[in-house]
Structure formats: C-alpha cells, structure tokens
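Fold this complex.
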Amino acid sequence: MPKNTNTSYFSIEQELTARFSKALSNPVRIAILQLLNSQSCCFHGDMADELPIAKSTLSQHLNELKDAGLIQGNIEGPNVKYCINKENWKLAKELINKLLSD
Amino acid sequence: MPKNTNTSYFSIEQELTARFSKALSNPVRIAILQLLNSQSCCFHGDMADELPIAKSTLSQHLNELKDAGLIQGNIEGPNVKYCINKENWKLAKELINKLLSD
DNA sequence: TAATTATATTGCAATATTACGATATGTTTT
DNA sequence: AAAACATATCGTAATATTGCAATATAATTA
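Structure:
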C-alpha cells in the first residue's frame, strides 16, 4: 500500500472523531476557536491582529477549521466574519466526550 | 522565523489541549484507545491482531500515545500490557470539554 | 546455550502540515 | 477608473506524520 488504502476498516464515527480532533491539534487553531467562541463571531482582520502568524497562515488555518466543519465564514462588505458552526461544534464535543468516557 | 519560534505566545493550557487533540487525531489511535478503554488493558499482540497495520506501525502509534501521556505500558513477562493513563485521560477530557463549551 | 517469541527501533518513502512572501481577487473609497 | 484595503491562493521550504520491511533487543522455552 502507498498509504492506508484501507479506508473502510474504521467506522465513520472513528474517522469523524479523528477528523475533529485533528482540527483541534494545533495551538493556533485552539486560539482561533477561543476567540470565535468568546465573542460569538470574529472578523479575519481582528484575529490577524491577535495572533502571532502571517495573514496567509491564518487563512490556511481558517480553511482547515472550515473543512472540518467547525466554523463558517460570512462575507460582510470587504470583511469576512467567521463564526462557530454550532451543530458540528456540538457533534465534535459529543464524539470526543464519548471516546474519552466509555 | 524558520518555523514558529514564538513558543511562548500560547498558554500551557492551549498547548496541552492541542497536544492531547493531536494524539486523538488519527483513526488508528482512536481504535487503540477504544480497545484499551473497553477492556481495562490490552497486550500489544492482541491489538496487533485487531488492527489493519504492521506491528512496527502499531509500536509507533503506541509511542505517540505514550508521549502524549494518554497511555502507559507495563512489561509483563515477554509481553507488554498497555493501559489508559487515567489521570491524563481525565485531564484531556477536561481540557477539550472546556474548549468546546466555553 | 540456542531457538523462539514479543516488542521496539531504524531506515526509508510518500504525503501532510505549517509557515511565509508574493500575488491574485474582490470590495470600498476617492 | 484608480487607489486602498481585506482576504484568499500560490509557490516554496522545512519539518512532521504515517506506513512498511528489516533489523535489533529482550525474555522465554527447548
């Protein structure tokens, strides 16, 4: 196998739990999520001011969080306002909790 | 900066949360943790039978979980018995829950 | 002590992650 | 329309992750 081709061995739930965890696996993304969660939403620009990374790097991290389904972005004039995706946020919490309880 | 040299920007809590999440960020490791948690402990060999990966790969994943503090291994004759590290398991749960609640 | 069994480590390849600067795109303001 | 601002994407580099086979280590059995 070039990589793990065996995509069917693990359950959807296991894959999803891993996916959400991966989104949380970097301190920059933790900080982003805390910013978004403390205020209910946040503009890209405001986050860029708070975080010690280049704006292009911030965009990348925001994309990963978006791909994982944990946040969503809404264009608002020239800015983009990002918010937590409540539904998946809840799902992530449930899945990780379930794993860590069992 | 060659990489993120700014190691001091993030709090210990943010770093720890990311670290635990990273340990959970792979379906193989999710499966390992579920095996360890369903029975209270598990031998390397038994896990090797259950999982679709080479034994050397399993050893690597077990090492990562050990490095993250989520499991511990005890030598028992010719075998190694792995168990959940309850204390850090609890800490991981608290940290990730805190992040996902706030 | 030699052979066997169990686990870990090493070496290597493929791919992913993280970061940045430069450039592109899109919106507002002038 | 041009300039200014906000965000995204691209290209690239350094490092990390994931996987395997081969080899090493350590304990047990013969």
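The interface with chain A takes residues 4, 6, 9-10, 14-15, 17-18, 21-22, 24-31, 33-34, 37-38, 52-53, 89, 92-93, 96-97, 99-102 of chain B (CB under 8 Å).
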